[in-house]
Amino acid sequence: MSFKGQIISTDRRRKLSLMLSLLLFLSFSGAAQKDTLKFWDIPPSFHPGRYWTAAGVSAAGYGVALISLNELWYKQYPRTSFHFFNDAEEWQQMDKAGHLFSAYFEADWTHGIVQWTGVKRKPSIWAGALVGIGLQATLEIFDGFSSKWGFSISDFTTNIAGSALWATQEFAWDEQRIRVKVSSTYRTYPEEIVPGDPSGSTTLKTRTDDLFGKNILQSFLKDYNAQTVWLSVNIHSFLPEESKFPKWLNVAFGYGAENMFGGFENKWKIDGTEYELSNNRYPRYRQLFISPDIDLSKIKIKSKPLKALVCMANIFKIPAPALEINGKGGVKWKWMYY
Predict the structure, then answer these.
(1) Which phi and psi (to 5°) does residue 219 adopt?
(2) What are the φ and ψ backbone dihedral angles of 235, each rounded to 5 degrees?
């Protein structure tokens, strides 16, 4: 497979994953019931009306999503027998961190939706965990039958890890003490001529526009240089209940990477022309971060609809000062990082 194909594969799986997650959430949340129970209330026991309405709407939405994904992306490429593709070393494992994050928040959101139907605690946890894995597995299976890509064991493993991280905490503590979050800062790249272009018209910005898009939303979804995936730890939850340490204050540990302009290396080919960036000028390296964070679920909010929206936003790391330790042997202090 060409580097361009690998790049498209990673980006495609990421976008499809987010589309499936969002569609499933909207399907569940739209399943309102006309009874005495208010929409945002959690029923004290199993509510058949809510359950079957939510299940029916979500199943229909999921089916429509699969058909749409096949028509929009996979149908245009030849189908093959089921096969595998090893992308474990791609993007400095930033795409794997993204899979961990996606499966985690899909499990978390699904659990909340299943609770809304009155399903008991343990079954609702299992439902969240299995949906988190299942949504991601759908995309891997599609890839496995496409000649352009293949089933990725490393992707599937990190999908399971993200869902398992969420479920383990629910079973052990009945809460999320360690949350997986994401942050991303939109960036622009220089108009620097890329070596190897005979016309002298291909710049680094041309390359990144093609890879990462040209606006903030595309950058958030696609630019692994701009993204950081975090494990945000709630300190108070590990202390005695009488502790006066703020319940909402977390410490977050982030993972990122820099100078990635190709899946495996900064070298690519377009229409027979080969391009390569200097490793001295653009060395690929990993980053670790330590930064304060806020667990939005710990903030007291009276309005249930607002509380639900705030908890949904809890998948994002707040902007804050951060200490960076990077693979070049450097240590940096950033007064504000996102």
Answers:
(1) -65, -40
(2) -65, -45
Contact of 224 with 287, CB cutoff 8 Å: no
Phi-psi region of 304 (alpha: psi -120 to 50; beta: other; left: phi over 0): alpha
Q: Of the given ranges (51-60, 100-109, 173-182, 296-305), which has the lowest mean pLDDT?
A: 51-60
Contacts with 121 (C-beta within 8 Å, 6 or more apart), sequence order = 174
Task: Please name the amino acid found at residue 309.
Answer: L
Q: Are 159 and 103 in contact (CB under 8 A)?
A: yes
Element (H, E) at 97: helix 94-116
Mean pLDDT computed over 251-255: 98
Gap between the Cα atoms of 319 and 336, Å rounded = 6
What six digits make up the tokens of 273?
């022309």
The token pair at 262 is 């190709």
Whole-prediction pTM: 0.84
Contact between 234 and 298 under an 8 Å Cβ cutoff? The reply is yes
Place of tokens 């590990």: 238
Block residue for tokens 């979804």: 221
Return left, alpha or beta for 93; rule: phi > 0 is left, psi -120 to 50 is alpha, else beta.
Answer: left
User: CA nearest 149: which of 158, 160, 159, 139?
Assistant: 139
Q: Is the pLDDT of residue 247 over 80?
A: yes
> How many C-beta atoms lie closer than 10 Å to residue 79's C-beta?
10
Pairing of strands 267-270, 178-184: unpaired
Q: Is the pLDDT of residue 77 over 90?
A: no
